[in-house]
Amino acid sequence: MRASAICCSLDPVALDALSRLGRKIHVLAGQTLVWEGDESILVGNVLAGMLKLSTVTGDGREQIVGIVYPSDFIGRPFGRDSHHSVTALTDASLCVFGRSAFDRFAHEHGEVEHALLARTLVELDRARHWMLLLGRKSACERVASLILEMSARLNAEQEIALPLSRQQMADVLGLTIETVSRSLTKLKHAGIISLPGTRRLTIDAPDKLKRIADG
Amino acid sequence: MRASAICCSLDPVALDALSRLGRKIHVLAGQTLVWEGDESILVGNVLAGMLKLSTVTGDGREQIVGIVYPSDFIGRPFGRDSHHSVTALTDASLCVFGRSAFDRFAHEHGEVEHALLARTLVELDRARHWMLLLGRKSACERVASLILEMSARLNAEQEIALPLSRQQMADVLGLTIETVSRSLTKLKHAGIISLPGTRRLTIDAPDKLKRIADG
DNA sequence: CGGTGGGTTGAGAACTATCAAATCGAGTGG
DNA sequence: CCACTCGATTTGATAGTTCTCAACCCACCG
Fold this sequence. Notes:
Two copies of one chain form a homodimer. Chain A is built from seven helices and eleven strands. Chain A is α+β, with helices and mostly antiparallel strands. Chain A folds into two domains: about 10-135, Jelly Rolls, CATH 2.60.120.10; about 135-215, Winged helix-like DNA-binding domain superfamily/Winged helix DNA-binding domain (Arc Repressor Mutant, subunit A). In chain A, strands 1-8-3-6 form a four-stranded antiparallel beta sheet. The first copy, chain A, is elongated. The mean pLDDT of chain A is about 90. The first copy, chain A, binds a DNA duplex through helix 6.
C-alpha cells in the first residue's frame, strides 16, 4: 500500500492516519464489489489482480467501460452513487476506505486530491480514446487495439497471458464473442499474432498490428 | 467569470489573482482552439457557446468524444499534450489561462483542485456512460439518447434548437449522416418527435423516447 | 433563376450479429 | 492413464443493420 500512488506523496503522520482508515480485502474472480446504481460506499486502490467496470442497457446488454489494473484507483469519491458495477476479473486484493471517511481525509490533504485529480484526468483521456474505438473502428481494428493496450499495461514481453475471456474481450470492444474469435483468427492467419493456447497470445509483427489498430 | 464553478469557491484575493492570469477570448463557429496531439497550452472555461472535443483515426474517421457547454472546463491541466482537438460548434466566448500558470495556481489553491476534481469525475462518468451507447446501442437508441441528453443539458422546454448538424450528430453517435437521418424520420413516423425545421425538434412522447433510449 | 450546401431517400454492398454445430481443453472419476 | 463431461472457443450458414454511393429535394443566396 505504501507504494500505491494515492498515498505516495504523504508525510509519515498523514500516511499513518490514512492507513488507519483503510483495510485490506480480498475478492475472488467473479465477485462484484459495487453494483451499478448503488450508493457509492467504498473507494480504494487495487493491490493485485484485475477488475472491470461495467454498465448494462435496460434489456441486459453489457458494456465494460474500464479495466482496472494493480495500483489503479476504484470507486467514486464525492458522489452519491456509482454509475457502474465493479467486478473482479481475477482474484484480487485491494486496500479500501469508506467513501465518506476518505472524502474527508482527501479534503484535508491536498496532496491526495492532487494525486486523485491526476489519475482521474488520465482515466478520462483513456475513456475518450476508447470512444474512438467504439464509435469508429472495425472489429479487427478493435481487437488489434485491445491486444496492444493489454500488452502495454501488463508490460508484457512478446507473449501475453490474456486476463480476459473472449466474452469479456467482446464486452470491452462492443462486439460479440464470435466476431472477436473471427478477428483473432484473421490476425493469426495474417501471421501477425499466434495463439499458443486459448489464454495465451504472442505478437509476431508489432508494427503491422499497430498499423491495423490505428485505422 | 465570477459565476463559473472553477473559481466560485475562492476568496476575493485569490479570485483577483486568478483573474489576472486569465483573459477572455472569442472564437467563431468552426475555429479550432487546440489540435489533437499538440502541446496542451490553454485551459479555461466556457462562458457562452458550445464546443466539441474530437479525435480521428489514422485514416481520418472522426469521433466526437465530448460536447462542452457553458460553464464547462476545457483543456488538460497537468499534462504534456492534449489527446483531442477542441473546436467551436457555435460562436463562443471563453475565459482562458496559460496551462502552466494555471497549474501553479491550482496547486497553491486546494479549492480549485477540488472543484476541478469534482468536474473531472462527472465528466468521466459521462464518458463511460457514452461508451455503453457506442458499444451496445442500435442507431435508433443512440439518436433517442442524444435527443434526451441535449434536451437535459440545454434545459430545453418541449422544443429544442438543435446545436448540432446531422454530421456532428453522426460524429457523436458513431454513425453516418444517413443513418442519423433515417433514425430521425423513423422516430417522427412513430409520432415520438416532430421536426418542424432542419434545426428544430420537439419531443412529443418523452416516455416512449426514454424507453427507446434506455434499450 | 441557377448554384450551393445541408438534408433526405433509395438500392445494393459490406460488416457484424445470430443461431447452430463442431471442436477444444481442463478437470473428473473410473 | 484414459474416457468422459462441461464450458469455452471456433467455425459455418444466414439474417439484419448499417454503410456506401447515388439521386433527389429544399432553403438560401447571389
